[in-house]
Amino acid sequence: MTARTATVTRATRETSITLTLTLEGTGKADVKTGVGFLDHLLDSLSRHARFDLTLASKGDLHVDDHHTAEDCALALGQAVDRALGERRGVNRFGWAYAPLDEALARAVVDLSGRSYADVTLGLTREAIGGLACENIPHILRSFATAADPARRRAEGRERSPPGRGRFQGDRARTQAGRGLLRLRRRAIHQGGSRCLTWSS
After folding, report:
1. Which among 57, 150, 163, 172 has most CB atoms closer than 10 A?
2. Which of 85, 115, 73, 109 has its CA nearest to residue 6?
3. Is 142 helix (H, G, I), strand (E, B) or coil?
4. Using one digit for the tens of pLDDT, what is the confidence trace for 40-84?
5. Domain range for residue 11?
6. Burial of 61 (0-12, 13-18, 19+ CB in 10 A)
């Protein structure tokens, strides 16, 4: 099987991003967004999904983290969409649970082709590691929109450590994603379905 890879370059007035993604990787990540917690989240996603991810971003962090967070998520979503291609032989549904300290992360993924994200996290902190907590649901929605697999449902309650359990739902999400990316033993026509539903 040919490796599913994609390179995305995204340049706006606020950000300049170059991203390379290999879906069947080893979990290696080289992420430099300028936002510590965003780097951590993307590194964690790569490691647990066993994606190889290289991402370099320069953004208007002197203003705030919003554009960097959003544009990194959009670029990653585009890369996933391109790397998956026609989605032949890819499972449509995937799900996983991950217990994290006092939180339970749940991920449900559906490659239906209808972009949608339902994100309810209940975060109470203002920021974690330079990333505004209000941007965490926005990152998930932006990814869902750009990936066009994009049906995602995320929910949770603030527990310890705050916010980490929410986005650490990535562990469950990526396990669910790995289930999706495994080739089926028999091909079933997908009818162009592309969508992700993730919960944490």
Report:
1. 150
2. 85
3. helix
4. 999 999 998 899 999 999 999 999 999 999 999 999 999 999 998
5. 5-181
6. middle
